[in-house]
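Dear U.,

For the methods section draft, I wanted the exact inputs and outputs in one place so we can describe them consistently. I've listed the two proteins in the order they'll appear in the manuscript figures. Please don't edit the token lines directly; just add comments below if something needs changing.

First protein:
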Amino acid sequence: LSLDLAAAELRAGERSFAAVHVLADRGPGVDRLRVESPDLTGEVRWPAAADGAQPVRVRLERLDLAGLDSGAAGAALGALGSAVELTVAQLDWQGRPLGALAATLASRAGSFEIREPAVEGAGDVARGTLACEAPLCHATVSLETHDAGALLARLGLRADLASAHGAVNAELAWPVGAAPTLTALRGTVHLALEDGVARGSAAAAAPGMPPGLLAVPGLIAAMGLPQLPFARLSGDFTLGGGEALTSNLHLDGDTEILVHGRVGLAARDYDAAVWVLKGEERLPAAVRALPPAARMAALWMSLRELFGGGGRAPAAWRLRGTWDDPMVTEP
């Protein structure tokens, strides 16, 4: 049995695709469905008995994650079968290419999960898991990049940071049936960038959204500095209610910066205390080598009595304002 169908429009949930060509054939051992259009091209192959050993295979030429409804995606997976092997030649975010995706998907009544998805492209590698079962979707993400500035640009953000190596690890959750928006997300994020530079006033005039979560470029812009090199930039964030809280964001370089406070993800603003340490005020090397949490604990002790020397502890600056127009109040 073979089918060759042309349609002016194909509707799938709330999405529509124009000028679609559908080809299907049924033969011994496998059924095949192929869809071709300017906005959707892909193929599905069903084995005679789909299971974990012989999954349904889905290949898409392109898939844009922006606006993808996790509930609708789960329903589509359930319609395909309980075990699906998915490959995407080009995974996009708001039309910007991220790389190629390979993943194994499993679904059952009311839930689905993506096991060990891997996205590779342009020097970046991302891996993780995704499981959705009412009321929440849970995701873990591990990302490594060798060009943090290019990665920010692909995500539609200003390249206010450059780094020779970077890693981001996140554990996130959001309601089933909704896109993972900034207001809906909750969880934790840890980042660590090495051998880089944070750009301030020069980058502030560039097009694109500032990478507000990182806070340091906003601080540098508010201070009127063109840029600030660093050996390491690291920190932990707790996400919830459209905000990210950090107590240990730390830039380690000739000038040292420590940030403790709130970053508004939905409001796109700042409210944080900042310590800018120079020269003898910088944390000792033994403290800077500690993990972020231990390093911050040592900082609070050192601020009470400047590194045991009886000196006066440096006062905190204040970072406020919006991501586009940050303001800093000197001590």
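Second protein (the one for the lower panel):
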Amino acid sequence: GRTATSPASFLGRLAMAPVHGVGTPVACFVILGLPLAGLAFVGGTSLEAALRQAGLAAQLRFAVTMQDVRTVILLRRQLSAEGPRRRPWLRISGAARRGPVWRRDWQGVLRWPALRILRILVLGGAAGVAATAAWEGTPVLVALAGLALLVAALDAIEGLAQEADHPTRSSTLPVGRGWLVLRHLAVPVSVMLVVCVVGVAVGGALGPGGLPEVVGIGLLAAIPAAVAAVVGAAVSVSVGPAINPLQIGPLANAVAGVKAAGPPVLAVLGVLPLAAARIAVNANHSALAGAAPAALGVLFVAATVTAAVLLREG
């Protein structure tokens, strides 16, 4: 719109008001009125709430230093007052009641606040935009797409994360820890498939001519991308902090590095079938011939990590 969006730019144009017209002085008066409005309403600020937020921010900084992903997620939700809904968006009935883990995870998803739903959908759209840009010739953006899906999966994996928060409770259940972990992965994968489909739709819509080949290959790549992102998020919240202050030495540093870098690397691997399809197209081969083997390879890696890390942690 041939205008500025920065308040500092509006203030800087005040001296050039005769050149830019009357819009800039009006905007400047509005901006100067914001501090006055703040002073008018600051009297209603709760000091107890401010102290509580300051304490949560200090705990958040410490959790980030320790690379404790689960604590960071919980503290961020407390800071933003992002609590579950009192009433679910939908009621679970029929066949969905048969599996207790399946029902419990869906009950948690259906009580998500609107802000959380909007956030993961926006992350899915961002992943779609990054994947489309990677398809058009910027392959490094594959990493951005994988990281966006990993952040969305950290919300989708809430059921398993709560089991990890209460390890003694899961030990009293009449099922093995391994089967419990596997059952908790079903709903997050379903949610992430929806997020990936949103990303495919956004990426296809923004591409030139709709990019039908990207849409088709994107739907194929959505399965390994969703599975890899969920497994990476599960490793982040189940294994524990990447840095353990009680452990020192080269071996402890190596373990901390694997715990910190493993989930992002796994999430980025989930998007590689799209890059493999593009390489096949550039070599005058079928995109499906490039994406299908890569997708199978990603699923194999995700299954191996699940068996070697998640089930062993149980």
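Candidate sentences for the figure legend, describing the second protein: The chain is about 75% helix and 0% strand. The radius of gyration is 24 Å.

Thanks,
Y.
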